[in-house]
Amino acid sequence: MVEKNKKISNLNTLGNWSFNKINYILFAIGLLLIIIGYILMAMGDVNSFQSLTLAPLMLFVGYLIVIPISILIKK
Questions:
Q1: What are the phi and psi torsion angles at 15 (to 5°)?
Q2: How many domains is the chain built from?
Q3: Measured between alpha carbons, how far is 48 from 45 in angstroms, rounded to an integer?
Q4: pLDDT tens-digit series, residues 34-70
Q5: Residue 37 sits in which domain range?
Q6: Which single residue of 23, 37, 50, 67 could bond 59 by disulfide (Cβ 3.0 to 4.6 Å)?
Q7: Which of 71, 72, 63, 56 is nearest to 31 (CA)?
């Protein structure tokens, strides 16, 4: 009886994991965008296009678009 309950609990924990390869790829792309955004922000001059426009745009896309999509998408 204990053996049967153990198998059922293992199936429940593994069966609920809904992330697949595309989720991890999108999450990695989001992290890469965020890392590159912070690097661009640190390397640019204070009032440059790179620091004021490009880097914040990359951070916005990474944090608010790509990573949530990677969490919400289900196939």
A1: -75, -25
A2: 1
A3: 5
A4: 999 999 999 989 999 999 999 999 999 999 999 999 9
A5: 18-72
A6: 37
A7: 63
